[in-house]
Amino acid sequence: MAQAKILTEREGAVLRVTLNDPATRNSLTPELVAGLHRALVAADEDQTVSCVVLTGAGKGFCAGGNIKDMRDGNDPMFRGTPHEMQEGYRNGIQALPRLFNRLDVPVIAAVNGSAIGAGCDLACMCDIRVGASDTKFAESFMRVGLVSGDGGAWYLPRVVGLPRALEMALTCATLDAQEALAFGLVTHVVEPGALLDKAMDLAHAIAAHPPRSIRLNKRLLKRSNEIDLEAALELAASYQAIVQNTADQKEAVSALLEKRAPAYVGR
After folding, report:
1. Contact 150/208 with Cβ under 8 angstroms?
2. What is an annotated GO biological process for this record, any one (predicted)?
3. Which ranges of the chain have pLDDT less than 70?
4. Residue 65 Rama label (left phi>0; alpha psi -120 to 50; beta)
5. Which pLDDT does position 266 carry in this prediction?
C-alpha cells in the first residue's frame, strides 16, 4: 500500500500539514503537489481552521524538483516539446503559487533541514517562516541549468527584496539559518527539536483571535502591499465595516472590558 504523500493533523483551530516523502526529501512530484493543493484548498474552505503549519517529514523540508525525474522525463514539466513543457508547468507546480496567493488562511512554514530550489520558493509562499539552527536555503535552479519556474521569481523578492533575491538566484549560494534570519527569510531560529513547537505556538497565538478577523487581516495586509494608499484605505474601511458587525467583535470588546477569556463563535 502506497504511503500518503500529504499528512494532516488537527490541533484545535490549527491544521498541521506534512509533506510526506522523506525518501526524496519531499521533492515536489506531481502527486505531492496535487495532494498539497487539495489539503490547502480544504483548509481555506474550512472556516474553523484559523492557521496552517506546513512542514516536511524526515530530514528535509523540501528538496524542490526531483532530479531523477528531470533526467528521465518522468514529469510533464521535463519532457516533450517546449510548448508541452510550458503546459506541464502551467497545469502542474504553478497551481501552488496561484493558490497561495489567494489563500485567506495564514500558513506558517516550519522549515526543517533544507529548503532547496522549489522548496525554498515553497517556503516563501508561506506567510511566516520559522527555521531550525540546521536549516539551509538555496535558490539553486541554475545549478541544473534552470530558472525559477514555480513562482519563486515573484515571491522571493517580496520576502527578501530584489537585490538579495538576485544574489541568491544568480550565485545559487546556500544560506545557513543565521544568514536566512539576516536576509529575512525566517523570523525565528530555534533548535531542531523545538522547531515544530515554535511554529505551533505561533499558529495558536494567531488562532486565539476571531476567525473572520484573522482571514480579513491577512487579506488586507497582502492586498494593501499591491495597491495605492487610497485603495488600501477604502479596502480597510470596507473590511472594518464587516468585522464590526460580527458577534465575535462584540465578544472581543466585552471580554476585554470584563477581563476574561473570549469565547468566539466564528461569526
Report:
1. no
2. fatty acid beta-oxidation
3. 1-2, 66, 69, 71-77, 79
4. beta
5. 86
* Residues with Cβ within 8 Å of residue 191, at least 6 apart in sequence: 132, 133
For position 55, what pLDDT does the model report?
99
Percentage of residues of the chain with pLDDT beyond 90: 82
Q: Which domain holds residue 252?
A: 211-258
| Same domain, residue pair 154 and 169 | yes
Whether this model's pTM surpasses 0.90: yes
Specify whether 216 is located in the same domain as 117: no
Give buried/exposed letters for 86-115 (b at 16+ CB in 10 A, else e).
eebbeebbbbbbeebeebbbbbbbbbbbbb
The DSSP result for 165-230, as a single string, is HHHHHHH-PEE-HHHHHHHTS-SEEE-GGGHHHHHHHHHHHHHTS-HHHHHHHHHHHHHHTTS-HH
**What pLDDT is recorded for position 125?**
98
Of 189, 207, 225, the residue at which a domain comes to its end is 207
Residues 139 and 226 in one domain: no
Residue 139 and residue 233 in one domain: no
